[in-house]
Here is the input.
Amino acid sequence: MLGSFSQFFLDLYESNPKWNFIYFYDPKQADRVLEGLWTTLELSVVCVIFSVVIGVAGAWLQTLPNRLVRMVVQGYIQFFRNTPPLIQLMFFYFALGQFTPTYSPDGWLEIPIISNVGWAIISLSFFAGAFNVEIFRAGIEAIPESTKEASESLGFSRLQTYRYIVLPLAFRVSLPALNNNLVNLVKTTTQALVIAVPELLYQMVSIYNDYSTSMNACMLLLFVVYIVLVGILVFGMQRWERAMNIPGYGS
Here is the structure.
């Protein structure tokens, strides 16, 4: 027998068919929503981490005296900044995916070693990472040259100066812009729908394709979930920004 919570939404559907919150009273649809939510969280967290690592590494490479390295980094930045993330997802999955090695667990079925989720992580991480490189580069340029020279006079190598002196200060300066980019990254994960990654938008579309009366309810849930996810990220980043604030650096 349905519980009072589930029964309420079932009664709501019977009295108003345009608002069919089927995932609240049908366990199968609830499982699809939970699977989509988990995939969205996994995709968001992993892409955020990788994009920040790419940004930090790319910003450091831009400080090297080797012109070829700097040109390669600039080429990467221009490629990913000047093309839509949706096109990048399709390019990685459908074009580069054709060259992905496969394995056969049963001797018949050929499975690529990189799944559609893997390609989404790679593509979105590189997309956001290109912006993060420029964000961190701007933060590095905000650090006075006298600070870098002082660290070098103490015997720090270029890498040590970047790791222990420049990066911690640049990170504080870069946090407001980084916050905006990471928020955009979380919202951009919905575009993984195009390569059939079973994230939340994919599951919502699948549910209302099967049950057309649930479209309004699915879109409402999707809207609320992303408000909450982005709100949590913004709140956490703002708390982090205040905790890391140093007078004279950052906001």
Notes: The radius of gyration is 23 Å.
